[in-house]
Amino acid sequence: MTESQFFQAIMQAADAAPSLDFSSAESISAFTQHYSSVALEKIILFAPKIILALLVLWIGMAIAGKVYRGLKRRAEKSEKIDTTLGNFFATAAKYAVIAATLLAAIAIVGIPVARIFVILSAATLAIGLALQGSLSNVAAGLLLIVLRPFQIGDYVELAGEEGTVEDLNIFTTTLRTLDNIKVILSNGEVRGNTIKNFSTLGVRRVDVDFGIDYGDDMDKAMKIILDTAGKDDRVLAKPDGPWARVCNLNDSSVDIQMRVWCKVDDYWDVRFDLIKAVKEAFDKGGISIPYPHVVEIEK
Predict the structure, then answer these.
(1) What 3-state class would DSSP assign to 133?
(2) In CATH terms, is domain 150-197 a member of 2.30.30.60?
(3) Which of 125, 166, 218, 293 has CB atoms 3.0–4.6 Å from 174's, for a disulfide?
(4) How far is CA 27 from CA 15, 20, 288, in A?
(5) Residues 6+ apart with CB under 8 A from 137
(6) 158 burial class (0-12, 13-18, 19+ CB within 10 angstroms)?
(7) pTM value?
(8) Cβ atoms of 224 and 279 closer than 8 Å
(9) How far is CA 155 from CA 123, 168, 265, in A?
């Protein structure tokens, strides 16, 4: 049944309906029975189409999921395909299958697909205003995928949030923080703020300040720091070897800053291990780290 035939049947049912008199119980009963029978007839007529459309939707959604997972898995296994681009194309293929499935289901029900496009075209301005935020996220996502300031697996800071990039699609970017929290950011927010990529250059510099007592030997303390850092195999000689200099004179301490270079994956381990190692070396070398003292004065 076409759309015109459907509306024609509805008009014929309305013309054949008995007149309604609210003061008469028999009139109300006859009117209700007429439209109940008409509704039941139309439900029976359209039930197979609706069931078939729902079946097509279910199959299409399942296929879309398999296409997405298959393409993403293949991109992750292939060395020739960038993981970020592979994830983008997998997402695009998924939504393309979903869109085709929706159009097929609509056509099965009997709604002209061409008319849907006409309505959407007429409502382009309203749809554009309603989806302005989403469209800006899509545009930002495409720019991020094309320009690639970061890739999946990079450790980054985006819109004030730090973490490892878990996913990048046309709408959102997903990070996993060091304490295993999932952070989802809109691509528009990511693109509109400063992007810090800690992984792309391959090495990072570890900066740690150590405070020593004013009465301690500064040269000796710096030598202890350099010797301790040099013993760590994870500390790199390039772009620069271990470095230590007096950086500040505080109220109760002389601050010495240590700078060492290491691989990105070793950053946190090197930082924490060297802090412990330098403290132990200071204790053995007679270098003290000042701490606040409380002096009690009796009057």
Answers:
(1) helix
(2) yes
(3) 166
(4) 16, 6, 102
(5) 170, 171, 172, 186, 187, 188
(6) buried
(7) 0.62
(8) no
(9) 42, 13, 9
- For residue 7, is it left (φ>0), alpha (ψ between -120 and 50) or beta? alpha
What's the rounded Cα separation, in Å, for the pair 242 and 223?
11
Please state, in angstroms and rounded to a whole number, the distance separating the CA atoms of residues 54 and 108.
10
How far apart (Å, rounded) are the C-alpha atoms in residues 193 and 185?
11
Residue 91, judged by CB atoms within 10 A of its CB (0-12, 13-18, 19+), counts as buried
Tokens of 239: 């772009």
For the chain, the distance separating the N- and C-terminal CA atoms, rounded to the nearest angstrom, is 104
How is the chain split into domains, by residue range? 3-119, 150-197, 203-285
Q: Which CATH class is domain 203-285?
A: alpha beta
**Can you tell me which residue has the tokens 């809109």?**
186
- pLDDT tens per residue across span 77-112: 777 776 777 777 788 888 888 888 888 888 877 777
Task: Name the fold adopted by 3-119.
Answer: Helix Hairpins (1.10.287)
73 token code pair: 């898995």
pLDDT tens string 161-186: 999 999 888 888 999 999 999 999 99
